[in-house]
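Chain X:
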Amino acid sequence: NRIPSSIVAALTHDIFINGCQFAFEIDGPQDTEVGRLYPDSPLIPLSHCLDAYLSNG
């Protein structure tokens, strides 16, 4: 049950190159930003997470 590499490449391209995870509008009453869902949790840039991971490795 292996997923073909072409499917993995297509999904990776869509997510990281085309930006399907962040290139959309928040416009409906049911849509909300993550900051409103978790107001007490600070948003940390991915680069900070990577730096922390690399310094602990």
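Chain Y:
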Amino acid sequence: MGKLLRKSLATTQSKLGFILLIVIGTLLTNVTVASAQLPSGERQLGQTIIEPGYDDRTGRLIYIMTPIGPPNPTHANAHAVSPLFLIVYPNSAANAVGTMNCAHEGGDNCPDHGPGIADLAQSVVPSVYGDGVWGHDHIMDGPGGSDFNVAWHVVVVLFTNAAAANTHITTEDQLDAALDAGDAITVETEIVFHCNLVSGATYGRATPLPPAAQ
């Protein structure tokens, strides 16, 4: 009886160990797949450009569609314009923040504005971005938010120290905290453009733009 009990316990422990390995493996696979599937870069659909961003209230992914043409609307009422924040990360933050809405390092996949944003970051805060610019994210008020509009004013956000850049900011609360602490600054641009939101499926049907030459 003792031998049978020990054998039964050993078999049960072996099965539990095997099940645990399967569970851990599944979790790790899901994490890897989720990370690999984060969208990045501009895509073209007809005469429009689509790129990912974040809803600044929830931190959830959204997709921004902009018509191809002049970036600045000629008749934008100041009261109907909302800020769209471009938060820029240095190469030193790559492991901490992961995939960006727009990648700069290794070939800029947002070729119509990425190179200019990278140059701006390196010229304004060289102590943080001097060794390279990893990428940037777009943060804006989503549908239902008080600042949700069709016309958007681009405001660039730069970190003042490398340590602060290791925090991936995807919400307005996080952004406000970084600005209030002096860990980030804003750079106003003159860019105002029209855009609207589309689905992830629409982004998926669009064609990735070739990266900008480095």
